[in-house]
Automatic annotation (TrEMBL):
Residues 24-205 form the DUF2207 domain. The chain crosses the membrane at residues 240-265, 373-390, 396-412, 419-434, 440-460. InterPro entries: DUF2207. The keyword Cell membrane does not apply. This is DUF2207 domain-containing protein. It comes from the Bacteria. Keywords: Membrane, Transmembrane, Transmembrane helix. The lineage of its organism: Bacteria, Fusobacteriati, Fusobacteriota, Fusobacteriia, Fusobacteriales. The keyword Transmembrane applies. It comes from Leptotrichia rugosa.
């Protein structure tokens, strides 16, 4: 048996020598010159190691994101002109280097590819932004050493005394690793990897430059379709230091806050907020998908299915068709903005804010994320714990244990209540094992807080018929759509899909629902009925772009001077910029 296994392994290595050796890129140098007219002049030097089955050459695939353009003007192999073909495939420019009737011997070959990239610059506040994948994330072979040099035509990227303003990311698409070193020298930026880049790993960078470094006619190179994602700034939360409060005051605070929240939530429980059903926008808001762009996207898609508006896919222009009396208030607000042609102006943003404020006012007591209502409870717990356990420092370790216990329970108890219930039992067991006479107060406190928490949790988790309505909607989509368990004719199933689609976007289930739609009704129906808008990001990208433009105009988004990936991020990641791509051998 061992002989057979060994022979099989040896045979596999003979058939697939790439397992033993494998192709790789030994050195990958990229020289990027930013011209004053906004065009990027790029020269790539690739030392490609062929180590396996003989190949004809390599191919290079460059993504054409957001309408960017690539013009190849020179290809060399080992410093000599080499045959190459260029063609477009999907959203890529493919450069196929080599001859069909020529096979290369194993070894290292140097390839030089010179090309220009147009429309790879976007506006970022009062600056221009270049977000570029210097080493593409689609190479199917490892890259031993990568070097990127970025410079400005007839000048320096940053003059003396001028703050450099760029970031670098490495890794696969979407990752934000820091496998690089960077330096500034004579107004040029030099970036290199620290360790080997594995398959499908690359290097991306974001540079912000003053507009005065470019010609005035650069406007024809600005890519207005590019979508920049900005990270939302997070609020800093201050830790509450409540030492020195007496035991009586601490107990009063706990009880007052507990009773307040209890009454507040019981009042909310008995309040009827909707008649029969929730709109898709309300479902999104109450499910926690409450950012402004998401709510606006759901409203637009709901209006689209109700045939109140139409959308031109190429230009993403929204056209008002009609208004219906039964529209929910939030959809009427967005429809008014579209009818008055506000979609590219500040007014559209204001209308979306008006919609969200209306939802906040309507559901301020019943929003699904009820963790904030636990805060008074845990605040009181911490106060009493400090007062109980730190009058003397004999039981400081017990206090620390309780503090960790309540902190952990705060974050996990809402979704994993069974785990929460194990923790107090564990602590009670420890206290009983040590000395029940000394620890009786601690045991009673655990039981008291545990019981109070169970009451709170029951109220918070079961107060709302809205939550039950959303849960039933999710179950309906799961049973009827995903499991295809309904028994009704094709016409009725089609009608149900029209109702479900906007809700599926609100619940982040749109891609699965769209796939079921294609399986049920076919690709042609999917395209003809605008269902494709529900499974891609066209609308939310357009909304994001419009809102970001307004925020920049209003000063809510502004660039900050940072360098070498430290501090605040520009919201980038590896593979998120223009260019890049990858390639391989053929």
């Amino acid at each position: 048996m061992k002989k057979i296994k060994i022979s099989r392994i040896f045979f596999l290595f003979l058939i697939f020598p790439i397992f033993l050796f494998g192709e790789s890129i030994k050195n990958y140098d990229v020289f990027i010159t930013i011209q004053k007219d906004g065009i990027l002049n790029i020269s790539e030097n690739i030392n490609y190691n062929f180590d396996g089955r003989q190949k004809h050459g390599i191919y290079r695939k460059i993504p054409l994101k957001f309408g960017s353009e690539v013009e190849v003007f020179n290809v060399l192999k080992n410093s000599k002109k080499e045959n190459f073909d260029i063609f477009d495939e999907a959203e890529y420019k493919i450069i196929k280097i080599g001859k069909q009737d020529v096979l290369l011997e194993n070894g290292i070959y140097n390839y030089q590819i010179d090309y220009k990239m147009k429309k790879a610059i976007t506006e970022y506040g009062n600056q221009y932004e270049i977000y570029f994948n210097g080493i593409g994330q689609e190479w199917g072979v490892p890259i031993e050493k990568a070097n990127i040099v970025i410079k400005m035509e007839n000048g320096k990227l940053y003059e003396n005394g001028e703050n450099s303003n760029f970031e670098v990311y490495t890794g696969k698409k979407g990752e934000r690793n820091q496998n690089f070193e960077a330096r500034m020298e004579n107004g040029e930026i030099f970036i290199s990897n620290l360790t080997r880049l594995n398959e499908n790993e690359g290097i991306s960078f974001i540079i912000h430059l003053d507009k005065n470094k470019f010609d005035k006619n650069i406007l024809n190179q600005i890519n207005n379709e590019a979508q920049r994602s900005f990270e939302k700034e997070r609020n800093d939360f201050k830790n509450l230091a409540l030492r020195g409060i007496s035991l009586v005051i601490g107990f009063i605070i706990l009880m007052v806050l507990s009773v307040y929240v209890w009454v507040y939530y019981l009042k909310a429980k008995n309040t009827k907020y909707f008649d029969e059903e929730l709109s898709p926008v309300e479902v999104a808001y109450l499910s926690g998908n409450d950012n402004l762009e998401k709510l606006t996207e759901v409203a637009i898609l709901s209006l689209l299915k109700k045939k109140c508006i139409s959308i031109k896919e190429k230009t993403m222009k929204m056209i008002f068709i009609s208004e219906k009396d039964e529209l929910p208030e939030e959809e009427k607000i967005i429809l008014e903005a579209i009818r008055n042609n506000y979609q590219k102006e500040d007014k559209f943003y204001e209308k979306s804010l008006e919609m969200k404020k209306m939802l906040e006012k309507k559901y301020r007591n019943l929003k699904k994320d009820s963790k904030k209502y636990y805060f008074p409870f845990f605040l009181g717990v911490i106060i009493l714990s400090i007062l109980f356990f730190t009058t003397t420092f004999e039981n400081l370790s017990i206090y620390i244990g309780f503090f960790i216990f309540f902190a952990v329970s705060y974050f996990i108890s809402l979704d994993k209540l069974s785990y929460f219930r194990i923790i107090p039992i564990f602590f009670i067991g420890i206290l009983l094992f040590n000395d029940i006479s000394k620890n009786i107060l601690y045991i009673l406190e655990i039981i008291y807080f545990w019981g109070l928490f169970e009451v709170f949790n029951y109220i918070f988790k079961n107060n709302s018929s809205i939550k039950k309505w959303i849960d039933e909607l999710k179950k309906y989509i799961e049973d009827k759509i995903f499991k295809n368990s309904w028994e009704m004719d094709r016409f009725e199933r089609r009608r149900i899909y029209d109702i479900i689609l906007p809700y599926s976007v609100a619940l982040h289930q749109n891609r699965r629902v769209s796939q079921c739609f294609i399986k049920e009704f076919g690709e042609e129906e999917y395209k003809n009925q605008n269902v494709n808008f529900f499974s891609n990001n066209l609308i939310i990208n357009e909304v994001q772009k419009t809102f970001d433009a307004v925020r920049v105009k209003w000063g809510k988004i502004a660039s900050k001077n940072k360098r070498f990936g430290s501090g605040r991020s520009f919201g980038g990641s590896s593979g998120g910029g223009f260019g890049g791509g990858g390639g391989g051998s053929w």
